[in-house]
């Protein structure tokens, strides 16, 4: 893939003039300031459509999804660097329209609304945000006319509302989520990371640490349950052994046996375990300098982003949002909860 093959277009007319290739067309939508996370999306798109397919990257800072006091004006615009990264990752074309090209009559009178899911979590913190996202995604899907569109799982709620829009309104395009890309220290890649000072970045690492703490705590719980896989019928025997060991003064063994008894008696993959582990890390980060100012931490059903109950089984999203200094960051991880074996 070389630079001459990749075209930079700025208008809908130029976009329509791009010849379709024999294979499928994939689109990767961005707001520019591209980084390795975006490159991963472009490479995934190229892998999906193959050498006969076509990959279009859009670069557009959408004013509709920025609320009052948010960073629209200072959002980085780096089109030349964005084009170079897109070329290197395998894009065939980059569509970088102006706001007047996307919204020729000014702010659109007719918009797509995100419904109930759009008022939760990110939507509650940023009213109208997802309406702006869906309106521009809907318009860009019409303009680019792809067979498949790829979005990062870091913006998990955004991915969910886009999937719902495409299904509910029969857009006829496949939506593919691509796993979050992280820096070596665990921080999820984001265009906003560049705003963080060294001290703020150290605090910001609490977001990923909180998510990993929940994941690791669940893994530990599962390992304990594996050791207690005899089932509820053995609970009495484990309890009796615990008491006998304690009488002999074997406190560590007694504590271990108590843990096994507790594991038998409690649900596997309890959501409360994940929530508690994440909140412990986030509380500690609130005491750092500079502090992490938590917006939300939530364990939700990926289908509608409502909080899952303690009896929940299946995949869930543990999502967190916080401010460090003036920079707002989000992150999430997917966890699976299941019935005791």
Describe this structure in words.
With 341 residues, the protein is of the alpha/beta class. It contains 11 helices and 9 strands. It has a 6-stranded parallel β-sheet with strand order 1-4-3-2-5-6, sandwiched between helices. Helix 2 (36-49) links the parallel strand 2 and strand 3. Helix 2 runs parallel beside helix 3 (79-89), helix 6 (129-144) crosses helix 7 and helix 9 runs antiparallel to helix 10 (251-265). The chain is globular, with a radius of gyration of 24 Å. It starts with 6 loop residues before the first strand and ends with a strand. Mean pLDDT is 89; it is low at 254-260.
Structural class: alpha/beta
Give, in order, the helices and strands: EHEHEHEHHHEHEHHHHEEE
The major beta sheet can be summarized as:
6 strands, parallel
Separate helix tally: 11
- Unreliable stretches (pLDDT < 50, length at least 5) are 254-260
Approximate helicity band: 40-55%
Overall morphology: globular
Strand content: 15-25%
- Determine Rg (CA atoms, Å): 24 Å
* Mean pLDDT across every amino acid position: 89
Q: What's the arrangement of strands in the largest beta sheet?
A: 1-4-3-2-5-6
Cα distance spanning the termini: 50 Å
Q: How many strands in all?
A: 9
């Amino acid at each position: 893939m070389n630079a001459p093959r990749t075209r930079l277009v700025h208008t809908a007319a130029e976009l329509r003039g791009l010849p379709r290739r024999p294979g499928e067309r994939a689109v990767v939508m961005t707001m520019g300031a591209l980084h390795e996370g975006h490159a991963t999306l472009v490479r995934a798109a190229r892998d999906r459509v193959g050498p006969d397919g076509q990959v279009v990257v859009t670069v557009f800072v959408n004013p509709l999804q920025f609320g009052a006091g948010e960073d629209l004006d200072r959002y980085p615009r780096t089109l030349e660097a964005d084009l170079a990264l897109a070329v290197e990752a395998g894009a065939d074309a980059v569509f970088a329209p102006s706001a007047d090209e996307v919204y020729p009559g000014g702010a659109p009178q007719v918009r797509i609304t995100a419904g109930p899911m759009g008022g939760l979590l990110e939507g509650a913190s940023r009213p109208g945000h997802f309406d702006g996202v869906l309106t521009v995604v809907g318009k860009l899907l019409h303009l680019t006319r792809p067979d498949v569109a790829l979005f990062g799982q870091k913006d998990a709620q955004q991915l969910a509302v886009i999937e719902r829009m495409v299904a509910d309104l029969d857009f006829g395009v496949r939506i593919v989520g691509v796993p979050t890309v992280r820096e070596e220290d665990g921080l999820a890649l984001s265009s906003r990371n560049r705003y963080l000072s060294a001290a703020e970045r150290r605090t910001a690492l609490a977001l990923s640490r909180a998510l990993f703490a929940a994941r690791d705590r669940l893994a530990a719980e599962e390992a304990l349950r594996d050791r207690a896989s005899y089932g509820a019928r053995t609970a009495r025997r484990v309890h009796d052994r615990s008491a006998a060991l304690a009488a002999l003064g074997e406190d560590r063994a007694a504590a271990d046996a108590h843990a096994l008894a507790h594991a038998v008696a409690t649900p596997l993959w309890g959501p409360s375990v994940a929530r508690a582990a994440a909140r412990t890390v986030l509380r500690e980060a609130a005491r750092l300098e500079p502090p992490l100012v938590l917006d939300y931490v939530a364990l939700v059903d990926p289908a509608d982003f409502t909080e899952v109950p303690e009896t929940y089984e299946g995949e869930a999203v543990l999502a967190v949002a916080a401010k460090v200094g003036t920079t707002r960051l989000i992150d999430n991880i997917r966890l699976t909860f299941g019935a005791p074996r």
